[in-house]
Specification:
The protein is mainly alpha-helical. 78% of the residues lie in helices and 4% in strands. The strands form 2 sheets. It has a two-stranded antiparallel ribbon with strand order 1-2. Strands 3-4 form a two-stranded antiparallel sheet. The longest helix has 93 residues.
Length: 247
Protein backbone atom coordinates (compact mmCIF):
# COMPACT_ATOMS: atom_id res chain seq x y z
CA UNK A 1 0.00 0.00 0.00
CA UNK A 2 2.85 2.42 0.69
CA UNK A 3 3.97 2.27 -2.97
CA UNK A 4 0.55 1.90 -4.58
CA UNK A 5 0.31 3.52 -8.01
CA UNK A 6 -3.46 3.94 -8.44
CA UNK A 7 -4.26 6.65 -5.92
CA UNK A 8 -2.35 8.71 -3.34
CA UNK A 9 -5.23 8.20 -0.89
CA UNK A 10 -4.46 4.47 -0.82
CA UNK A 11 -0.90 5.32 0.11
CA UNK A 12 -2.10 7.69 2.87
CA UNK A 13 -4.26 4.89 4.30
CA UNK A 14 -1.21 2.62 4.23
CA UNK A 15 0.87 5.15 6.15
CA UNK A 16 -1.94 5.66 8.68
CA UNK A 17 -2.24 1.89 9.17
CA UNK A 18 1.53 1.64 9.71
CA UNK A 19 1.41 4.58 12.16
CA UNK A 20 -1.31 2.85 14.20
CA UNK A 21 0.10 -0.68 14.20
CA UNK A 22 3.90 -0.53 14.02
CA UNK A 23 6.04 -0.36 17.18
CA UNK A 24 7.30 3.20 17.74
CA UNK A 25 10.93 2.09 17.41
CA UNK A 26 10.29 0.83 13.85
CA UNK A 27 8.48 3.92 12.53
CA UNK A 28 11.57 5.81 11.37
CA UNK A 29 12.95 2.84 9.40
CA UNK A 30 9.60 2.46 7.61
CA UNK A 31 8.95 6.16 6.91
CA UNK A 32 12.40 7.69 6.26
CA UNK A 33 12.53 6.65 2.59
CA UNK A 34 9.31 8.58 1.84
CA UNK A 35 10.21 11.98 3.35
CA UNK A 36 11.27 13.31 -0.09
CA UNK A 37 8.20 11.95 -1.93
CA UNK A 38 6.79 14.81 -4.05
CA UNK A 39 3.48 13.21 -5.01
CA UNK A 40 0.64 15.64 -4.24
CA UNK A 41 -2.48 14.72 -2.34
CA UNK A 42 -5.48 16.79 -1.25
CA UNK A 43 -5.71 15.78 2.40
CA UNK A 44 -9.19 17.30 2.69
CA UNK A 45 -10.49 15.41 -0.37
CA UNK A 46 -11.56 18.46 -2.33
CA UNK A 47 -11.16 20.97 0.47
CA UNK A 48 -8.23 22.66 -1.20
CA UNK A 49 -5.44 21.63 1.20
CA UNK A 50 -2.86 20.06 -1.13
CA UNK A 51 0.28 18.62 0.46
CA UNK A 52 3.26 16.59 -0.66
CA UNK A 53 3.33 12.96 0.43
CA UNK A 54 6.70 13.53 2.12
CA UNK A 55 5.21 16.32 4.26
CA UNK A 56 2.25 14.08 5.15
CA UNK A 57 4.65 11.36 6.35
CA UNK A 58 6.59 13.99 8.31
CA UNK A 59 3.37 15.13 10.07
CA UNK A 60 2.49 11.51 10.89
CA UNK A 61 5.81 11.21 12.74
CA UNK A 62 5.72 14.58 14.52
CA UNK A 63 2.02 15.11 15.31
CA UNK A 64 -0.55 13.15 17.28
CA UNK A 65 -3.71 14.73 15.82
CA UNK A 66 -4.48 14.36 12.12
CA UNK A 67 -7.83 16.02 11.25
CA UNK A 68 -9.49 14.56 14.34
CA UNK A 69 -7.75 11.17 14.19
CA UNK A 70 -5.52 10.62 17.22
CA UNK A 71 -2.36 8.56 16.70
CA UNK A 72 -0.78 6.45 19.47
CA UNK A 73 1.68 8.43 21.54
CA UNK A 74 5.36 7.81 20.81
CA UNK A 75 7.64 7.45 23.85
CA UNK A 76 9.73 10.53 24.56
CA UNK A 77 13.19 8.92 23.97
CA UNK A 78 12.09 7.52 20.61
CA UNK A 79 10.43 10.83 19.69
CA UNK A 80 13.72 12.66 20.41
CA UNK A 81 15.57 10.27 18.11
CA UNK A 82 13.01 10.83 15.34
CA UNK A 83 13.25 14.62 15.70
CA UNK A 84 17.06 14.48 15.60
CA UNK A 85 17.00 12.29 12.49
CA UNK A 86 14.49 14.67 10.90
CA UNK A 87 16.83 17.65 11.49
CA UNK A 88 19.72 15.76 9.91
CA UNK A 89 17.51 14.85 6.96
CA UNK A 90 16.76 18.52 6.24
CA UNK A 91 13.71 20.80 5.88
CA UNK A 92 10.37 19.74 4.46
CA UNK A 93 9.62 19.81 0.73
CA UNK A 94 7.50 22.95 1.07
CA UNK A 95 10.27 24.78 2.95
CA UNK A 96 12.79 23.70 0.30
CA UNK A 97 10.60 25.16 -2.46
CA UNK A 98 10.21 28.39 -0.49
CA UNK A 99 14.01 28.67 -0.11
CA UNK A 100 14.46 28.01 -3.83
CA UNK A 101 11.91 30.72 -4.66
CA UNK A 102 13.74 33.18 -2.39
CA UNK A 103 17.10 32.32 -4.00
CA UNK A 104 15.60 32.73 -7.48
CA UNK A 105 14.23 36.14 -6.48
CA UNK A 106 17.64 37.19 -5.16
CA UNK A 107 19.36 35.96 -8.34
CA UNK A 108 16.87 37.93 -10.43
CA UNK A 109 17.53 41.12 -8.46
CA UNK A 110 21.28 40.56 -8.74
CA UNK A 111 21.05 40.01 -12.51
CA UNK A 112 19.02 43.21 -12.94
CA UNK A 113 21.58 45.10 -10.88
CA UNK A 114 24.48 43.80 -12.99
CA UNK A 115 22.61 44.68 -16.17
CA UNK A 116 22.04 48.25 -14.96
CA UNK A 117 25.71 48.57 -14.02
CA UNK A 118 26.76 47.31 -17.47
CA UNK A 119 24.51 49.87 -19.17
CA UNK A 120 25.90 52.68 -17.02
CA UNK A 121 29.47 51.57 -17.70
CA UNK A 122 28.82 51.41 -21.44
CA UNK A 123 27.25 54.87 -21.40
CA UNK A 124 30.22 56.19 -19.43
CA UNK A 125 32.69 54.70 -21.90
CA UNK A 126 30.77 56.20 -24.81
CA UNK A 127 30.73 59.64 -23.21
CA UNK A 128 34.41 59.38 -22.41
CA UNK A 129 35.24 58.47 -26.02
CA UNK A 130 33.27 61.43 -27.28
CA UNK A 131 34.99 63.79 -24.86
CA UNK A 132 38.40 62.50 -25.91
CA UNK A 133 37.45 63.01 -29.53
CA UNK A 134 36.33 66.57 -28.85
CA UNK A 135 39.56 67.24 -26.95
CA UNK A 136 41.62 65.93 -29.86
CA UNK A 137 39.61 68.08 -32.26
CA UNK A 138 40.29 71.16 -30.11
CA UNK A 139 44.00 70.42 -30.04
CA UNK A 140 44.07 69.93 -33.78
CA UNK A 141 42.25 73.22 -34.33
CA UNK A 142 44.71 74.94 -31.96
CA UNK A 143 47.65 73.64 -33.98
CA UNK A 144 46.07 74.83 -37.20
CA UNK A 145 45.41 78.27 -35.76
CA UNK A 146 49.01 78.53 -34.50
CA UNK A 147 50.28 77.55 -37.93
CA UNK A 148 48.13 80.18 -39.65
CA UNK A 149 48.68 83.10 -37.30
CA UNK A 150 52.28 82.46 -36.28
CA UNK A 151 53.85 83.02 -32.88
CA UNK A 152 51.97 86.24 -32.12
CA UNK A 153 48.85 84.31 -31.15
CA UNK A 154 50.66 81.83 -28.94
CA UNK A 155 49.44 83.48 -25.71
CA UNK A 156 45.83 83.26 -26.88
CA UNK A 157 46.33 79.59 -27.76
CA UNK A 158 47.61 78.93 -24.26
CA UNK A 159 44.57 80.64 -22.75
CA UNK A 160 42.25 78.62 -24.96
CA UNK A 161 43.94 75.38 -23.94
CA UNK A 162 43.67 76.31 -20.27
CA UNK A 163 39.98 76.98 -20.63
CA UNK A 164 39.46 73.69 -22.45
CA UNK A 165 41.40 71.87 -19.75
CA UNK A 166 39.30 73.46 -17.01
CA UNK A 167 36.09 72.56 -18.79
CA UNK A 168 37.28 69.00 -19.22
CA UNK A 169 38.14 68.70 -15.53
CA UNK A 170 34.78 70.12 -14.53
CA UNK A 171 32.99 67.65 -16.81
CA UNK A 172 34.97 64.75 -15.33
CA UNK A 173 34.10 65.84 -11.79
CA UNK A 174 30.43 66.12 -12.71
CA UNK A 175 30.47 62.68 -14.33
CA UNK A 176 32.10 61.16 -11.26
CA UNK A 177 29.44 62.63 -8.97
CA UNK A 178 26.67 61.32 -11.24
CA UNK A 179 28.21 57.85 -11.23
CA UNK A 180 28.42 57.87 -7.43
CA UNK A 181 24.75 58.87 -7.21
CA UNK A 182 23.75 56.12 -9.64
CA UNK A 183 25.75 53.55 -7.68
CA UNK A 184 24.15 54.56 -4.38
CA UNK A 185 20.70 54.49 -5.95
CA UNK A 186 21.31 51.01 -7.35
CA UNK A 187 22.50 49.73 -3.98
CA UNK A 188 19.39 51.15 -2.33
CA UNK A 189 17.15 49.55 -4.96
CA UNK A 190 18.85 46.19 -4.55
CA UNK A 191 18.51 46.26 -0.75
CA UNK A 192 14.83 47.24 -1.05
CA UNK A 193 14.09 44.42 -3.50
CA UNK A 194 15.90 41.92 -1.29
CA UNK A 195 13.97 43.09 1.78
CA UNK A 196 10.67 42.78 -0.14
CA UNK A 197 11.51 39.21 -1.17
CA UNK A 198 12.38 38.25 2.42
CA UNK A 199 9.19 39.90 3.69
CA UNK A 200 7.11 37.93 1.17
CA UNK A 201 8.62 34.65 2.31
CA UNK A 202 8.10 35.59 5.97
CA UNK A 203 4.46 36.52 5.28
CA UNK A 204 3.86 33.20 3.55
CA UNK A 205 5.32 31.28 6.47
CA UNK A 206 3.34 33.38 8.96
CA UNK A 207 0.11 32.79 7.03
CA UNK A 208 0.80 29.04 6.90
CA UNK A 209 1.29 28.99 10.67
CA UNK A 210 -1.92 30.95 11.21
CA UNK A 211 -3.90 28.61 8.97
CA UNK A 212 -2.49 25.53 10.68
CA UNK A 213 -3.30 27.00 14.12
CA UNK A 214 -6.85 27.83 13.08
CA UNK A 215 -7.30 24.30 11.71
CA UNK A 216 -5.99 22.81 14.94
CA UNK A 217 -8.38 25.00 16.98
CA UNK A 218 -11.30 23.88 14.84
CA UNK A 219 -10.26 20.25 15.25
CA UNK A 220 -10.03 20.62 19.03
CA UNK A 221 -13.40 22.36 19.18
CA UNK A 222 -15.02 19.62 17.08
CA UNK A 223 -13.49 16.89 19.21
CA UNK A 224 -14.74 18.64 22.37
CA UNK A 225 -18.22 18.90 20.89
CA UNK A 226 -18.19 15.21 20.02
CA UNK A 227 -17.08 14.28 23.52
CA UNK A 228 -19.77 16.46 25.05
CA UNK A 229 -22.47 15.01 22.82
CA UNK A 230 -21.32 11.48 23.68
CA UNK A 231 -21.37 12.27 27.40
CA UNK A 232 -24.88 13.72 27.09
CA UNK A 233 -26.04 10.62 25.25
CA UNK A 234 -24.53 8.38 27.91
CA UNK A 235 -26.19 10.36 30.69
CA UNK A 236 -29.55 10.11 28.89
CA UNK A 237 -29.15 6.34 28.51
CA UNK A 238 -28.25 5.96 32.18
CA UNK A 239 -31.28 7.97 33.28
CA UNK A 240 -33.50 5.97 30.94
CA UNK A 241 -32.15 2.68 32.31
CA UNK A 242 -32.61 3.84 35.90
CA UNK A 243 -36.23 4.73 35.17
CA UNK A 244 -36.82 1.31 33.65
CA UNK A 245 -35.28 -0.45 36.61
CA UNK A 246 -37.47 1.51 39.04
CA UNK A 247 -40.61 0.72 37.07
Amino acid sequence: MLDHCDSPYIRCLGFMYARYTLPPADLWDWFKDYLADEEEVDVKAGGGLVMYMGDVVRDFLLKLDWFGALFPRIPVPIQKIIVANMKEYGPSIKEQYQEEALKAEQDKVQAEREEREARVKQRYETDRTRKDQRRDDHRESDRDSRGRHGGSSRGKDYDSRDRDRDRYRESRTSDRSHRDKDRRRKDDDFSKELKKAKDRVKDERRNDKKRSRSRERKKRSRSRERRRSRSRERSKEKSHRSRRSRS
